Amino acid sequence: MVLVLIALASGLATLALRDGGQARLEQEAARLAALLEAGRAESRAFGVTVRFELSGAGSSADGNGPERGDGSGARIDYRFVGLPAKTLPPGHWLEAQTQAEIVGARALRLGPEPLIGAQRIVLSLDGQQRVVATDGLAPFTVQQAAP
CB under 8 Å, gap of 24 or more: what pairs does 26-31 form? Predict the structure, then answer.
């Protein structure tokens, strides 16, 4: 009975001590999937072509990338091209060390067509990766990166 209780307590402690980097990356990926879906919806609503682009050659958020251009001095790690200015999201990652790579393209095309091509973006943080992807019909979802 004592051994069962110890095993149960250690199992719960292991779950409670989940890797902080993994949790931050999951949050970043979920946020990106929601932003991309919002961009798709806005593209269809306005009937305009919208692209999601990463800024900088290395596409890392090191704080030395381009600035917003509105005098705020805020860095831009990504941008939605084609959306009206009032609907633009913040343009930076929650975690400054987040790196992103769009697989097989320079930008993601979000519409205005209801069917878009299959697209993937890989997010990396603290040596871990998550993929935000769509098959072109389904919404963008967060997936584990292939080892």
Answer: 26/130, 26/142, 27/94, 28/93, 28/94, 28/95, 28/98, 28/123, 28/125, 28/130, 29/123, 29/130, 29/131, 29/132, 29/142, 30/142, 31/94
